[in-house]
Specification:
This protein has 251 residues and is α/β, with parallel strands linked by helices. The chain has one domain: TIM Barrel, CATH 3.20.20.70. 41% of the residues lie in helices and 14% in strands. It has an eight-stranded parallel beta sheet with strand order 7-6-5-4-3-2-1-8. α5 crosses α7 and α7 crosses α9. The longest helix has 19 residues.
């Protein structure tokens, strides 16, 4: 089964509503002919609703950057799955390294979020990846295995097929340092192998994205790797021309 590539833009804490609407419109227009991949935009919460209006009746998918596992309640500052579903979100990022580093996310809370999302109409993009210190200590495979096993604990093969994974080496996020295509492929192949051990043949159908200083200049080489199925883009998705250069990597 062919794995449809995914090019996702994580806007992080950037863009006012007006800026978000302008960027979403430009991406929508420029990606209209991009039938080779799924294009995903993940604006900040304040821009989700207006961007949803821009993307309506287009192929571009709206995603949120995080979600709580409870459907509602006294969780100040959080957002729920019913809220995201109601405005048209179809995907949500879970366990981004910045959530882990700055906001106390753990493999256990990632797992709670993943399970909740799988009970909704949304599709999770689950992030994993090691720090520079962990890689230099030769622990990168152990760290990624722990994050995979913890984050996907209790999942069935059927539920696995709804998940998109994103391997983001923390040392390459926003630093300008990018894992070489060969280094990225090595980890992607390892991840797929680990999934195969746990879930069997279904691992061949799981899409695994690469994230970490992805740019128009390196996306084509990354996409030539057999186990890289797309990109979770940070800084380079904040300008339409740059992001469209990544989306049209096959041009």
């Amino acid at each position: 089964m062919a794995r449809t590539p995914v090019i996702a833009g994580n806007w992080k804490m950037h863009k006012t509503v007006a800026e978000a609407v302008a960027l979403a419109q430009a991406v929508k227009d420029g990606a209209a002919g991009a039938a080779h991949c799924q294009v995903v935009l993940a604006p900040p919460y304040t821009a989700l609703y207006p961007v949803a209006g821009i993307l309506r009746d287009s192929r571009v998918i709206l995603a949120a950057q995080n979600v709580h596992w409870e459907p509602g309640g006294a969780f100040t500052g959080e957002i729920s799955l019913p809220m995201l579903e109601a405005i048209g979100c179809r995907m949500v990022i879970i366990g981004h390294s910045e959530r882990r580093q700055y906001f106390g996310e753990t493999d256990a809370t990632v797992n709670r979020r993943v399970r909740a999302v799988l009970d909704s109409d949304l599709q999770p993009i689950v992030c994993i990846g090691e720090t520079l210190e962990e890689r230099e200590a030769g622990r990168h495979y152990d760290v990624v295995t722990q994050q995979l096993d913890g984050g996907l604990d209790g999942l069935t093969r059927r539920s696995l097929l709804r998940i998109i994974l994103a391997y983001e080496p923390v040392w390459a996020i926003g630093t300008g340092r990018t894992a070489s295509p060969e280094t990225a492929q090595e980890m992607h192949a390892f991840i797929r192998s680990r999934l195969s051990e746990r879930f069997g043949e279904g691992a061949r159908e799981v899409r695994i994205l690469y994230g970490g200083s992805v740019k128009p200049a390196n996306i084509a080489a990354l996409m030539r790797q057999p186990d890289i199925d797309g990109a979770l883009v940070g800084g380079a998705c904040l300008e339409a021309d740059s992001f469209l250069g990544i989306i049209h990597y096959n041009a």
